[in-house]
Each structure stands twice: as C-alpha cells, then as structure tokens.
Give the backbone structure.
Amino acid sequence: MNSSSPPAVSIAPAPARVPLYAGEPTTLTEVFQHVARDHAKPDTINYKRDGRWQQISSDEMLLRIGRIALGLYSLGVRRGDRVAILSESCPEWVLADGGCLFAGAVDVPIYPTLTPPQVRYILRDSEARVLFISHPAKLSEVMDVLRECPSLEHVVVFHTPETAAANSVPGTSSDAGKLVQHSLAELETLGAEAEKQNPDSIFELTAPKPDGLATIIYTSGTTGEPKGVMLTHANLVSNLIDCSEKFEFGKNDVSLSVLPLSHIFERQAMYMYLHHGMSVFFAESLEQTGANMREVHPTVFVGVPRIFEKIYARIKDKAAEKGRANSALLNWAVEVGKAHARLVANHQKVSPVLALKNKLASSLVFTKWRQGMGGRIRIFVSGGAALSEEIGYIFSGAGLPIVQGYGLTETAPVITASTLEDNRIGTVGQPIRNVAVRLAADGEIETRGPNVMQGYWRKPEQTREVFTEDGWFKTGDIGKIDGDGFLTITDRKKELLKTSGGKYIAPQPIEQLIKGSRFVNQVVLLGNARKFPAALIVPDWERLESYAKLKGIDAKTHEELCRHPRIIDLFERQIAALTPDLAQYERVKRIVLLPHEMTIESGELTPTLKVKRRVIDEKYRDLIDRLYEDAERTAPTGN
C-alpha cells in the first residue's frame, strides 16, 4: 500500500510557538498517557447501556487504546497508513482514535449521516486500509460501496454480537482480495496476545512526532467536492493547550458530550476534557440531552447555536402549556435578565431596582431552568456557527452563560474564544495564545499560528488558493475587530448574496432577526442574482397550530397552513416588525413556508446543524423560481 504523504505545498511558517508550561505534551499520544498518569480516576469516560451508566477508568482507557494499537499493527497497519472511523459518538470512537494515534496511523473520521457514495469517496480518496464502524446495520448500509474501495482490507465493528464476528466478506476488486470483518473485542484480543508475547511491544510502535500527520478530516462538501484537511499532532495539541486558559476546565468538571466526534469541534473538546482530567458522559442522543443533564449534573456543556435555540424553545413551550400567566411571567423574567446581562457584559452599573428584579426573576423562573439542566452548569460553550445575541443575553441573564469560540476544521479548530470574565456577547472573543488574526481589504478574516493545517490531502492547488502570499490562511469568513481585539463574524464570504441590482446582502444577520419571531423555527434567506430578498421559512408548528385554532383558521394540514393567506400575512407582519432598520434592498419582499423541517438526514443541514445553502437552492429551485415569477406577475406597472 502507498502510505506516502501528498506532495508538499510551500506555506510560510508561523512564528515559533511559546509553550504555556514546562513539560506540556507535544503529541496526542502524550495527552492520553498524561491522563492515566496525572488524572487517574474510575470514571474518565461514561456511557449508558441497558438503562445503566457504565464507566471506563483512565487506566482501562489507556490499556484498551494500547491493545487496539497493537491489534492494528498485527493487521499490518504501519505509520502513515489511513484508518477510517464511521460511527456515532461513543466511547469506542475515542478508543479507536487513540489506538490509531498510538499505532502511528492517520485516522479519517466519517460522519455516520453521510450517504454510501459519500462514504465511498472518502475511503477511496484517503486510501484507508481499515474501517472502524459502529454496528452491523451500518455495515449493511455501506457494504456495496466498501467492495468498491480497493485499498480497504479490514472492517472492525464496535457493537457486534459475538456470533456474528469474524466473518469474511468477498471483495470484487482483485486488488482488495478479501474484506475481513472483526469485532472490536477480537481486535483487542489480538493486541493483548501480541502484548503477552512481548510485554514491551507497545513501546516498539513508532512514536509519532509533533509534525507527524494525525488525522485527515473531510469537509462537508457544501460548496463542491469534499477536501481532506490534514492536521498534525502539533496542530491539535497546540490548539488544545492554547485554548485552555480561555475555558478554564478542571479535574472537578463534568461534561455531557452531545456533538459528533467526527467534527473537529467536539473532537478537540474531547481532547480538552481528557487533558484536564474531567469526567465525560456521552449523551444517549440529542433528544435525551435534557434527561441526561438531570442525571449526570454536568458543569460544562459544548454545543452549537441550534441546540441552545431548541432548549429555549422548549422552555417557552412548557410555560405556554401552563397558561398565559406562566408565559407572562417567563417573558417578564427574560426581559429583566437580558437587561441585567447587557449591563454586566458591557461593564456598566446595575441599578438597585434592576438588581432586585433580577434576583426575583432568578428565584421565580431561572432557578428552575438551572435545575432542569442538572443544577451545576458553570459554562456553556457555543461554536460551529454564529450564536444570536438574543439567545446569548437570554442564557446569560438566566445565570447560564454561553461563551463563543470561532474557528474552522483547517485551524484545528479554535482561532478566537471568549471567557467568562469578559464575555462580550455578539463577539467570538479574542485570538487565543500564539494565534494571530487580521482582516483583508474586503473584510475577510485571515489567521496564522501553529494550529493551521498542513494542507488539503492531495490537493496542492486548492491548498495554495487558501493561503496568502505571505502565509496567512484565508478563512472565507467576513468579520470586524473592535478596539479591544474582539472579533465579530458578520457572514461567510461565499454566502454573501448579490442581488441583480448589484447590492451585497449578508444573510445570517437577517436570518437571526427573523428567528426572533416565536412562530419561526428555521429560515433561509434567498436573493442571489434576484431583484430582491425572499425567505424560506419552516414554522414552529406547535405555536402556529395554536394560533390558527385561536383565530379560527380552517386548515387541517401543515401544507394547508403554509398556503393560507392569513398565515402568510402573519409571517409577513412578523418579519416587517423584526427588521425595521434594514436598508430597503435588504428587506424580505416574499416568503414561502415549508411544511417539513430541514434535517441532517435530508441533506439540508450539516452534522453541526448549519444550513447547506447550495443544497437548499437545488432542492427548492422550482419553488424559488415560482416565487419570483409570481412576484414579477403581481408587481405594479409604471414608476
């Protein structure tokens, strides 16, 4: 097999990194060893099976990682070989990741929500030799495409009944020979046997070097062919260390993990949890997040904006179920909390009257929120997309502060982050240690530092395109920096809409305003190469159905509600009220209501719940074309 690295691309080196403390780890294998040596505990990793929480100690974690590494070595995996992981987040994901790193392999995470052709592309492009996969059902889904991957030799299944293990599946490619299936338990047994024969065999594996490739993470491909982002041990470990002072995680913290480990945001968060000796609990699912919070009482929770929006929507729904008095009390408390949070965030004096109101709001309302989330939340961390200021102030006012971070897969990932001590809501904080940020003439954010990727796997031209001549990485995001160095993201450079009249429109700020309506669940702004902006909106069906019933609107299905003139008028009035300060060319002139929520499974959202605008444009092209054609027909004639 060809394990060689792709052709090098000349990138100007960043200034030498300044270590945070003596003896800090320089590779991810050292991070795992550090956990067992300095943070020994019985509940390093926790998961729920058969209704009971189970534990993996720090010692057991390191032991199993070592055996997986030796098992991979026994299968013929050598330094630089690629090993893919196709699975939902679970303890086995972390163990497989660690095993790959100790074996000197380069792991390639694959989202379990990707389609079989997308899985095939990543496996073939990376030339993975081994695939870890979650369970037999997932294996069945992708088996046909696995046969079309000539480099793939072994499949290791995390959760497999013992009777189903160790079957051979014929491959169709003469280069592939036989695709051999193993259970994870068998792979660990293979490693244990190697260890028994030679107790020092784990130390004979080639130790990775800081500049050695650790992982290839494929971008979601929302704007074209996926690209494999190459991150070294130094990229990841430097980012892990340099983020530490921002979030101030500690060994007494407990985290509930809900995001996919296939995404760099949660993966780096996991390394941080382990590095700081925290106890990590895997949520059973996004739907079970609330229940799991009340069970494990986390102090730290890392999420994306959509999760925090859903939490608040659920709080509002529960208040509405208890009647108008409860809704009124909630609304009063929220307004008081926001007013208090704004003054605190801006380091302004809080009046005695507002302080008293805030104390009362906390006693009557916010204490229940905090208890509903386990009662011990110290910090929420949001990333992956821009968090609306509204949500930021609401949670901060409730005593549940959300700090934002910003970065990309290509930057391992964190570029900037806020702190609890100086949490300027609406910004994504200041650059972390050893990382620099500047703005190009058009407002694009550029960065350099030890966290910036090695390049795109076997795509030297695309790599060159994202670096300036003097070696700064071009993020593709538009932003602004205030006098204190706090960065605000205003939009994606490639997502800026340009109307047929030549006006540029940033969609995200307008979408955030529209989402201020209690009737709006999801919204996507349209208008590129069109005369004016329009919007696709998914309503909050529970609230809309209650409104329709209250107003006596005769519509029996979601589709009928979407077409009803009085419902359309409601949304148009809501949008007009929420966007009075927009320029004329930015104002939404037409809307279309969608009867179904946009989801990951439908391909409309990324695994971190961001909208895939290209997919939306293609999927709803006929609907969008009709919207603008109808507008042309009904437009008044003359001046």
User: Anything to note?
Assistant: Residues 324-345 form the longest helix (22 residues).
